[in-house]
Amino acid sequence: MTTERIRIALQKSGRLAEDSIGLLKSCGLHVARSKDQLFCRIKELPIDVLLVRDDDIPNFVDSGICELGIVGDNVFSEMKCAADNFSATVVERLGFSQCRLAIAVPDNGAVQKISDLAGATIATSYPHLLQDFLKRQNITAKTLVMMGSVEVAPRLKIADAICDIVASGATLAANNLRELTTVLQSQALLVRGARTFSPDKENIIRRLLARMRGALTAEDSKYVMLHADADKLPEIVKLLPGSESPTILPLRGHDDKFAVHAVCRESVFWETMEQLQAAGASAILVLPIEKMMA
Ligand code: ATP
Ligand code: ZN
Predict the structure, then answer these.
(1) Is the pLDDT score of 192 beyond 90?
(2) How confident is the model at residue 1 (pLDDT cuts 50, 70, 90)?
(3) Short-list 165, 156, 155, 126, CA closest to 143
(4) Quick one: DSSP state of residue 169?
(5) What's the CA angle centered on 190, arms 208 and 26, to 5 degrees?
(6) Which residues contact 178 (CB under 8 A, 6 or more apart)?
(7) Which fold has domain 6-96+188-218?
(8) Which CATH superfamily is domain 99-186 in?
(9) What's the pTM value of the predicted model, to 2 decimals?
(10) Which of 15, 96, 101 to mutate to test the pocket of ligand 1 (most atoms within 8 A of CB)?
(11) Which of ligand 1's atoms lies nearest the C-alpha of 168?
């Protein structure tokens, strides 16, 4: 019996590409890609990868060319906002490629607060998300659609403001622009077609999703080991971030000294370790967790 295969659309190259392939890798799936290849077969699970421009991913998934896709919320939501009969849905927020769609204005321009946007011209590649935002704010403004270099529009005097993707803010600063407000907080999404696929395909999707969730949880989680006196244990256990019941083991040769082992599901910072030490913990070890399955 041959199992059916599913297709997942990923960005071919760019800011989503590496982390998307990296996530599949941490799910034990290897995408062998050569430079011009658009289609790769994954050996470990019945999944094929289609490498495309991120802007094509929502439509590929919506129209059924691919069952799944990984795309930024900014691109997905813009497409959803633009098309009347778009029905692809979000399966999981993946946490990487974090950025925001923001409205920015020249440092010393006419627009200094949100209400000043009334009657202004705003340059953007996200006309639908922008108009949706303006409608919610009861503001009427003109949109100038530009597919790239949006940040130069105010300097060219063709727009009073821009609505564009911001991550560090360096591009804005370099163009003497400052952020006025956020339109959308974005990150990479796993998306799928709305219809139910065959039981075989749904099963592959379930397996992939369980692996992705495991990989994403493991990424933030750490295995913490430390030593502490019995009377210090309650306070120390409270300090362990996001851990359920830790394992407490007696240390050989000590009556009242114990080893504490815990899975911490939240980031363990140097500050956390300093607090643990101040609370009486010693021999503190923080180990990465490679995989996790509940
Ligand atoms: P393509 O050639 O596939 O059309 P692109 O030039 O449109 O690529 P990229 O710049 O690679 O897009 O960005 C892809 C996505 O990554 C964006 O839509 C956004 O979700 C996210 N992104 C953009 N800038 C950043 C950033 N500085 N840091 C993290 N994520 C970002
Ligand atoms: Zn793009």
Answers:
(1) yes
(2) low
(3) 126
(4) S
(5) 45
(6) 104, 105, 106, 107, 172
(7) D-Maltodextrin-Binding Protein; domain 2 (3.40.190)
(8) Periplasmic binding protein-like II (3.40.190.10)
(9) 0.90
(10) 15
(11) 27
